[in-house]
Prior knowledge:
The complex is a heterodimer.
Chain A: H1 5-11, H2 17-33, E1 38-40, E2 43-46, H3 51-67, E3 75-78, H4 95-110, E4 135-136, H5 139-149, H6 158-167, E5 169-171, E6 185-190, H7 196-210, E7 215-218, H8 225-238, E8 245-246, E9 260-264, H9 265-275, E10 284-287, H10 294-304, E11 312-317, H11 319-328, H12 330-336, E12 340-343, E13 358-361, H13 364-372, E14 377-380, H14 383-392
Helix pairs in contact in A: 2-6, 3-4, 5-8, 7-8, 7-9, 10-12
Chain B: E1 2-5, E2 7-10, E3 13-20, H1 27-30, E4 54-57, H2 66-75, E5 82-85, H3 90-99, E6 103-105, H4 111-114, E7 120-124, E8 129-132
Parallel strand pairs in B: 3-4, 4-5, 5-6
Antiparallel strand pairs in B: 1-8, 2-6, 3-7, 7-8
Helix pairs in contact in B: 2-3
Amino acid sequence: MHLTNQEEKMLAGEAGFAVQKSMQILTALGEIFGADKMIPISSVQVAGVSYYNLGDAGLEYLENLAGKGAKARVKTTLNPAGMDLENWRELGIDEEFAGKQERVIRAFMKMGVTPSCTCTPYLVGNEPGRGDHIAWSESSAVTYANSILGALTNREGGPSALAAAITGRTPCYGMHIEENRKPQVHVKVDAKLAAVPDFGALGYVVGKKIGPKIPLFEGIEGAHVEQLKSLCASIATYGGTALFHTHDATYHQEEAPTEVLTITRADIEGALRALNDETAEVDFVALGCPHCTLDEIKTIAGLLEGRKVTREFWICTARQTMKEAEKIGYAQKVRAAGAKFACDTCMAVAPLKGRFSVLATDSAKACYYGRGTNDFKTHIGSVEECVNAAVTGKWS
Amino acid sequence: MELVRGRKISGGTAEGLALVSHEAISFFGGVNPDTGVITEKGHELEGTTMKDRVLVFPNGKGSTVGSYTLYRMKRNGVAPRAIINVECEPIVAVGAIISEIPTVDRLERDPLTLFQSGRRLKVDADRSVVEVSD
């Protein structure tokens, strides 16, 4: 791999320990993936923030790095943490966990990272533009950045994203190279998709059928941000792709791929059935995977008005989005009904195992983590169905 | 003395007894960071510690948080002395670099058949070679 003079100096340790270690990580990854050079990046999103996943190992590493003077050189934000950083008690997080999680966040802040903990950084100020090279980690955000924003990023691991932040560089391979971004499967959506769960179901079906191949979607033009982020989350979770194309976002070529996959309404219904377990009771309702937009909070607030929830109900969102909802008055309606905001965190990374047994959500991705990480049974349905479940405790 | 060439992933030199796994290893969730013992159910090395061994295995798998597990093992003094992979991937590469564990991959001969557990190996990652020293 070719390094510039400046990069050689960074690797030799002339810019300090943290930069040297980070350069070692990036050059090793570059060798493994066949990169021929480093490229400058303008934005980083670091995963590996929840203490639930990091453990003491990750905490020690981050504190050590911060103590040795590591500093982010570009705009860097974080993935959700294991708790709401302010309101963790109300979410049932214990003292010891909270103390460790706070140390994680302090270490990142010492490194100059903005402690905005969200899987939707593009909604709250970390929004790269078309053609920008970036290094993001969280899989739905990576897919959104590549597919909707037209930025270029591989799916980074936590440590490699942090190394990119510290050096301002990433090895040039994979999604950073235009010819690797061509669509490989033409996915014709021959089904009317309604609410958010339908888009999650679409990602589930397509992800399972094509794996990490790059699809070109036809038939979802005009989808709005809530639907697209849900599709990004589920297709990355169930398939592994970091990029899809749509005619109105990123696809501008003349020739569509010859491999065709047609998705019908029956496929969508089948996916929704597969994500719904046979059980009528619900004891945990969580929306916001990926994190809720202001518009989603508005809808939830409207549905909750004048009602009381009887089950634990989390609305997962970025702190900044919740604060906007407070200014307008949506947040007050949500809280008056007994529902809780879970800012900076979510149902996938908080320590929830053993606390609940049946999750209701509108997110196909949340079903995956609910089942896999937390051993929950799951229900997927519209926001209306989820709010009803929070009020009645039943899935109908 | 036999000398086998490979590719440097993480620099340094270390010597120890080989521990060979024919299966991939998940460091996050599959290895106890306080003891170095492989805990993955049904793994061919379940119950064996990798402490102070030259760990030979195909590649890492699982969560990228596994890189931090290697780091914790090193801090706890239970990490392998060196790593030889068939084909290194980012979890092990990053973990080895931040933990300063000499690591090589892509040897000119398949390390899983060439080396047996208990052979004394010296990994000189800076020169990209493995020496069989017994």
